[in-house]
Write a structure and sequence with these properties.
Blueprint lengths: L2 H9 L2 H32 L10 E7 L6 H13 L6 E5 L10 E4 L10 E8 L3 H5 L3 E4 L19 E5 H7 L9 E4 L2 E9 L15 E5 L9 E5 L5 H15 L4 E2 L5 E2 H8 L1 H35 L1 H9 L4 H38 L8 H25 L3 H6 L2
Parallel strand pairs: 4-9, 6-8
Antiparallel strand pairs: 1-10, 1-11, 1-12, 2-10, 3-4, 5-8, 6-9, 7-8
Length: 401
């Protein structure tokens, strides 16, 4: 197949070819970024929570009076522990898939004038790690004497534990045990790492930057309760826990949005991501459909317009395959031109999204993926008109002039 004659023919239809090329470019830019956003959302929905989420029930309480918080926390823990099927009860400041309760900047170098790191500090009572089902990666868990009284934000405990992957990020290639973490007036020594614990509000660029500090339940640590049971009993335990709350603390508010089984909280947390992914899939489908219809329309018009040319070529010995390949090659050249421009537009669009919505940079491998999809779409869209052109008999074509 000669490329130059095809390019010469396209120059005579430069406006139509330009419009289709621009449509392809726009489709390429949107397609690459939409696929990237969908991939991000899907990865987020698959994030490892690090907890035994199918065995946990969460009650997030509000409206607790500080003067009787310690007594109320003790009575609630005892009451929850007495519910049939409950294996353990823990108190913390937050759990995954709820809301932040300990976000804080910190330093890993004592004399650093700036807080160069940002993480979520989980504060938990003595049963917190075991109830959640955290797995020790390195070092040890907290000793009983390391659970300190709560201040306004963090306990004055000397020890801290970190997510193992996050510790590797803070001190690459080093043993994190014995390292220091500095927050405000407090300093903490790393005594261990856990395998994984996602932050309460994971996002594509911030998932496992979590630290765990030991605190005694009471004032400032009486609002979040985690009950561990079997997967079959989570719904029933949740109902019994709500009923117990109504009897023991009728004036305390149970936050509906942050209370429930851990699986339900996770499902609710990612509802927006699922909706966004579904919307983007719809946008991609509509965009590809419009692009395909544009190619079909233009190709059909050109086939009708070139019937005399087709007839002459068939009369001179061109086979059906030659005609078919001509239109396929012509479409390939137009789509390729649009893809080249579309890749530049894809980076520009990604730059705008990074600037305005703090999205990560578009990986390069999305560009060939988008190009392959558009090449395949173009070939499929032009196939029908090209087959009709190839089926035109030479005599009929020349008589139609």
């Amino acid at each position: 197949m000669q490329i130059l004659p095809i390019l010469a023919a396209l120059r005579r239809h430069r406006i139509a070819a330009f419009l289709i090329g621009m449509e392809i470019a726009l489709a390429c830019a949107i397609l690459c970024n939409a696929l990237f956003l969908i991939s991000n959302r899907v990865d987020m929905m698959r994030v490892d929570s690090g907890v035994d989420q199918n065995r946990l029930v969460v009650l997030w309480l509000d409206g607790i009076d500080d003067t009787n918080a310690t007594d109320l926390a003790a009575r609630l823990r005892a009451g929850f522990a007495g519910i049939a099927g409950v294996e353990s009860v823990a108190v913390g400041n937050a759990v995954p898939f709820t809301q932040r309760a300990g976000e804080m900047g910190f330093r890993v170098v004592a004399d650093d004038p700036h807080y160069t790191q940002q993480g979520h500090f989980y504060v938990g009572g003595p049963e917190f790690a075991a109830t959640l089902g955290l797995r020790l990666a390195q070092g040890r868990w907290f000793n009983p004497d390391e659970y300190g009284p709560m201040g306004e934000f963090l306990p004055e405990s000397p020890s801290v534990m970190l997510d193992a992957a996050y510790a590797e990020k803070l001190w690459p290639g080093q043993d994190p045990l014995g390292k220091m973490v500095y927050t405000g007036e407090n300093s903490y020594r790393v005594i261990g790492t856990y395998a994984s614990l996602v932050r309460p509000d994971p996002s594509p660029d911030s998932q496992h930057n979590t630290l765990l500090v030991a605190g005694n339940p009471g004032k400032h640590l009486a609002g979040v309760y985690v009950l561990r049971t079997t997967p079959e009993q989570t719904d029933r335990v949740l109902r019994d826990a709500r009923a117990l709350m109504a009897r023991v603390a009728p004036t305390v508010v149970v936050e509906k949005d942050f209370s429930g089984t851990m699986l339900a909280l996770r499902h609710a947390f990612f509802a927006g991501d699922r909706a966004m992914a579904g919307l983007l899939v719809g946008v991609i489908a509509a965009l590809l459909l419009v692009t395909a219809l544009g190619i079909v329309g233009l190709a059909s018009f050109w086939v009708q317009q070139r019937r005399r040319q087709i007839g002459i070529r068939r009369a001179l010995g061109a086979t059906r395959g030659d005609i078919l390949h001509y239109f396929q090659t012509e479409n390939f050249l137009i789509v390729s031109g649009g893809i080249v421009l579309g890749m530049l537009l894809a980076f520009a669009l990604n730059l705008a999204l990074m600037t305005n919505y703090e999205l990560p940079r578009l990986p390069l491998y999305y560009l060939p993926v988008g190009a392959l999809l558009l090449w395949a779409l173009g070939q499929l869209a032009v196939l029908g008109p090209a087959l009709r052109a190839a089926a035109v008999p030479p005599v009929v074509a020349t008589r139609s002039v």
